[in-house]
Amino acid sequence: MMLPPILLETTAHYDELLKHVQGFIYPNELNLLWSVLIVCYPYITGLVAGAFIMASLERVFRVKSLQPTYRLSLLTSLAFLLVAPLPLLFHLGHPERCFEVMMTPHITSPMAIFGFVYAWYLMAVLLLELWFDYRKDLVEWSRTATGWRRLLYSLLTLGVRDVSLDALRFDDKIGRAITIIGIPSAFLLHGYVGFIFGSVKANPWWGTVLMPIIFIFSAMVSGIALLMFLYLVTCWLRRVSVDMACLETIGKCLLTALVVDFAVEALDWIHRLYIADESLDVLVLLASGRLIYSLFVMQIFMGMIVPGLALAGMIVYKAGVKMRQMVYFTCSLLVLIGIFAMRWNVVIGGQLFSKSLRGFTTYKLELVGQEGLLTSLILLAMPFVIVSVMIHLFLPRSEMAARPTSPAIQN
Amino acid sequence: MNVFKNATRRQALSALGRVAAGLAALFTVKHVKAAVQGAVSTPAPKGYDPTAHQWQMAIDVEKCIGCGLCAEACKKENHVPKEPGYFRTWVERYIIKKPKAGAMVMHGEVVMARGETVVDSPNGGIGGFSPSAVPKPEILKSFFVPKLCNLCRHSPCDQACPVGATFRSPDGVVLVDWKYCIGCSFCVQACPYGCRFISPVTHTAEKCTLCYHRITHGLKPACVEICPTGSRIFGDLKDLSPSNPLRKFYENRKLQTLKPHLGTEPHVFYAGLDGEVR
Hints:
The complex is a heterodimer of chains A (411) and B (278).
Chain A: H1 5-19, E1 22-23, H2 36-59, H3 67-83, H4 85-91, H5 100-103, H6 113-144, H7 147-156, H8 165-198, H9 211-238, H10 244-275, H11 280-288, H12 292-316, H13 321-347, H14 349-352, E2 359-360, H15 373-394, H16 407-410
Antiparallel strand pairs in A: 1-2
Chain B: H1 2-6, H2 9-40, E1 55-60, H3 69-78, E2 90-97, E3 105-106, E4 109-110, E5 117-120, E6 139-147, H4 156-160, E7 166-168, E8 174-176, H5 186-190, E9 197-198, E10 205-206, H6 212-215, H7 222-226, E11 232-236, H8 245-252, E12 255-256, E13 268-271
Parallel strand pairs in B: 1-13
Antiparallel strand pairs in B: 1-11, 2-5, 2-6, 3-4, 7-8, 9-10, 12-13
């Protein structure tokens, strides 16, 4: 029987896919559906949550050495949050119907909760906290700045120009309260992303109760690393001297989060190996086969063990300032790549094996195209562009050293 | 803050009332919209009462000869893309090998009843199966298993859909409203049986509907119609006549479902199923 010409063209694509199938997969599993874009989604969301936790350390737990990065972490969180839904949107078969998730949510679906958690986090937590924190400065800048900047700052004051001591005290109180609400919200934001995967009982690689916890800790690891990276790069570009006390504190936080993250993921594996249910054979084959490079080399060795040892070394070994900065910088990069590999292993790895537990399919990352490498690179670069603009507009050089707080508020 | 300071109790109550009324209106609109969507988006004829039926399919594994006509008929009937990777129903071949010489005996005892299981389903079984690569003397036994949507009572796909585009109809069929589906693929991930795919034509989720456009008109699903051996048994559980093939099958055979440990409660029952089938 003759196939229509359009189908004949694509059969080569399927032949190619079929060549890479190992063992038996259900016929519908040939096409891997959640692409690199869905790898970017939990990656970016994790960076949001992690960066926010660092802000809360300063604000709620009063880790004063983190003052220079307080605003940077909030701005970072916001920049990445703005981009977070884009990979999901680009992935949808019908992006034009995306608002149905919020208009007619199906409440048994963890994905339907996305709209609400996202809106809550963006509007009730981040924007509010930033606004209260920046109110005094916005009023001041709207007086001192010129041109379009003056207009922007005036607009952002939302017409509230009261900077009396009482008002500022109120701002501070509210800001702190929002941060306190923000901590569980950040956990919710990323814990729920973990739950999207953890709730899939059909997939033994995903369907574990530890998944939200693993996601939360890996989010903290990646967020802290991102903050470290951005702080160093911003200081270097602006030729501002790095506040070493702040950097050391970030380093210690990163090490702590890294150790906990490693422990939780190790627990997951120990549990799997000990329980040894019917899925173990295929998962071991997956880890030692198709994921060997991204799991053992990228995620565990380069992303956890090497930076972990280096960070621990920084506590024991008193190196010079330049050297320490370079080590921290390298660690932050390694961790950022390692966590990306972790997301890859979860999202792509979970689709490489068949739910029949009898074989493997393959994933071919396309270069261009709606869900290709180029799209994901652009999406990953976007928050960095946004955060640079934000730093330029809202983080004057003088603030990189220490957060200005009016003495009147402190009493 | 002043608004709240100066408000009287009456004003506060009325404000609350207005909010409640707004929420109620939103709720109603949502449900009316859902009802309209439901009414227009299934291919059932006017006057079809989904509560009067309970459609089910059962599989007699021992009768399947692996001709693959069912999978082919399904693709034609439902305009399923012809490429591999898109199937509403398919047939799997299981070959269970004899245990390797030596594996049979350990410390003088027989320890292995059978050897490795080899499964395949080339192009979903369409066009039948060519002889297996496993040499005949090594084969302990082999059989075919037709697969389709398992019509789960606790369907994970339905649970996972973020917009409610997939739903379990009162007549037992799990359907997808392709005019409503956003194409997120979460349901495909959630289905433990690999029964769903994203159509490259509509970019929405697709699956077996038991040929809803046929059964609601009193016809049989295409796969049942074409099966030469009667391996697929289809009927309405609410049809109490003694000639109902489904009832007879349920009465006379020992039945099993796929992956029962997942608690999905499939409503496609298999007779003669081997434990190797997942």
